[in-house]
Amino acid sequence: MSRESEAALSGESSAAALPGTLSETLRTELIAFRRDMHMHPELGNQEFRTTAALRHRLERAGLAPQVLNTGTGLFCDIGTRDGATVRPMLALRADIDALPIPDTKTGVAYRSTVPDRAHACGHDVHTTAVLGAGLVLAELDREGLLPHPVRLIFQPAEEVLPGGALDAIESGVLEGVGRIIAVHCDPRVDVGTIGLRTGPITSACDRLEVALDGPGGHTARPHLTTDLVTAAAKVATEVPALLARRVDARSGLALTWGRIAAGHACNVIPQHAELSGTVRCLDLKSWREAPDLVHAAIDEISALYHAKSQINYVRGVPPVVNDLLAAELLRDAQIARRGPQSIEDTEQSLGGEDFSWYLEQVPGAMARLGVRTPGDSARRDLHRGDFDVDERAIQVGVELFTAAALLDGDRS
Hints:
It contains 10 helices and 16 strands. It has 412 residues and is α/β, with parallel strands linked by helices. It has 2 domains: 288 residues, Aminopeptidase (3-Layer(aba) Sandwich), CATH 3.40.630.10; 114 residues, Alpha-Beta Plaits (2-Layer Sandwich), CATH 3.30.70.360. It has an 8-stranded mixed beta sheet. Helix 4 links the parallel strand 3 and strand 4. Helix 2 runs antiparallel to helix 4, helix 4 packs across helix 10 and helix 6 runs antiparallel to helix 7. The longest helix is centred in the last third of the chain and has 21 residues. The chain is elongated. The model has no long low-confidence stretch (mean pLDDT 93).
């Protein structure tokens, strides 16, 4: 292990006296909580067991969590007095749902016990880190050391388009919140380190479904009907090319097809064809314009070949755009815990994250939480059945959140 990795994991820094570090007893409890959650993954809007476990533990700490209107997920305030706050709260957000894929890990006792369900994206770590931060901050509040109130948000259904964040916002989780922060596990970053950037850190992601229709006919006489297979092929190839000429290339707007289907016989021109794919975009402005641009391009190409088009453009999520001040808060918090060597620059990804919906309402930022064991050279990724983490990342996440809450008390 490198000297930098050792320093990041040990928490060497000039601000080591900042309160809110994790006790060994709580660290052990949180690892057990994460493993139990990992063994019992629940899909979006079905997270009843997880919600109950979080509620029980927060109530044991003397807090008053409130379950969201959807029946799963909850939020919990720390440091409020009679519901009044001096100024807007800092919110710490976690997502609690799992993925509909089998857990293929071997050799671990906490493998999923639910068939075809797995925490393969690190939501169990995000949840445990926010829970741990809440327990630490509640104790600091009792000691009079919490500078201003904090809200914990445990959100359901992040993996379900357009994301459970919208339901959480509808339930009022942003009322009284002035800034929101979060982390996302990154298997390419060493544990003890976080990845940060200001501006866009994820991509927008929408779903597109297109149906094309025509009268059909004999392949010997395509001139007497709508050659629907050719029309579908032209939509598949020319619409992405047309879009590329209608937006700034730096926006990264890209339509990629994942499915195309038409016809049943080699000598019959079909009456119906279908295409489906995703629209991804790095730029928030272009994402907002994308539905109109996509509709217009499909209509133009399909009309050239006399095909009738029906378009189902499903809004997914906008890009997560990190606010400068919120990103600086995360940076300062990590430096306070583990020093400047524990932060690395990170690139914008093409993945989607519904944390972006919160940032449409209040400023905030997301950091990439390192979960790779230093020295591990294997190529690992999210959304795989064998995904796992170095559990020391839990402590890193807890102490990052607690430091941010303490430092945020000094900022407007």
